[in-house]
Write a structure and sequence with these properties.
With 417 residues, the chain is of the alpha/beta class. It has ten helices and 19 strands. Strands 3, 4, 5, 6, 11, 12 and 14 form a seven-stranded antiparallel β-sheet that branches. Strand 4 and strand 5 form a beta hairpin.
Length: 417
Amino acid sequence: MLSCRYSGLWNKYHITMRLFFLVLLTFLSLSAQSEMVGDMDCYIHDSLCLPIPQKRTDYNKDELLLLMSKNVPKALYQSLLVKYGLEELSEASLDGLGADLKIADTKGQDPLELTKKINLIYEELEAATNNAYQLESVPKELLNDEGYPKSLTGAHEALQISKGKGVLIGMIDGAVDTNHSSLKGRVEQFSLVASGGKSVASLLHGTAVAGVLVSNNALIGIAPEAQVYSVVAFEQKSKKGFTSSTALIAQAIDNAISKKVDILNFSFSGGYDPVVEKMVKKAISKGIIVVASCGNDSSNKKRYPAATSGVVAVTAVDHLKRAYKKANTGAYIDVAAPGVGVLTTGPGERHQLSSGTSIAAANVTGSLALLLAKKKNIDPDMLSYTATDLGEPGRDNAFGDGLINVLSALKSIGGNN
């Protein structure tokens, strides 16, 4: 009897310990994944927060990125190419990180699986997928009509105090029609893509965003005396529209950092991306204010770079201060700005009504330029502190801290003196 009871207890103990180690291994595995993918949501309970990896599927299936410091031995890099059957396609220097970014042909292998294998073995470099990004505004029919007034955010009155003079805004986007009369002399452009600006369609988004930033049309430009440095990183490669990639966005940010821009406007979004996150954080560390649109997917999933810590994440509202129906929601959203049916510039001396969080982000960027022209080294969250609360009382997932009030922000920093 004693031996049978002992045997039964031992079996129960053995099973319990196996289950314990299985749970422990699962937790460690998930924790390791959290280091790879960054910002995560949690489940089960706040006291036992297990990370849920965010898996991307919108990456180039034939390419792999390899990010490495400039002192990594060439022999190590070459041996990696041979070991995994890769072929180098191109390379770029990311001087802001003191690193090189290599793009390799995977020869039919899954880039996601390759990143797992390579990052597990090599400490000297980081493998990543070459992810996709999309622009976040929807140009409507080209019209000569008034959008709703800038008085919604106090911009009309604010322009009596500041016009953004001396501020350099960096924008990473599609090509801008720099010959548009209301943008002439305000935009310097550098293209990373061969097809940038070769068609009217390729000029729609960038020209719309630039118009909101610095157009000299009194109905349009938020900071008409600021300057724009435009890096073209989006091109049309398929029927899906104009897209970019991790490699292009990283190079564009690096280029803007070297140009010493004061603000960076990102009117685009994508999933979590460790390479782009590094570049965004490098820009922030250099004192550059980074503004990004939250995306137009009608989703509560995080969109990046907007959800990256330190970035001013922007959603859109209409002339009645209602949330844009396609705007994403989430705790990462900081402020709201006009972004529905906004009058702005279009290619070929035309004007257009545009909607989307892209337009709202440009409105916030322009507003920050007005503040920077009056006081350098402002708090990037200044527009949150003076925002007009919308929706539920206090900060919420739809509007963040509320609708920006640039006039109040200017007064709070003594800009009216």
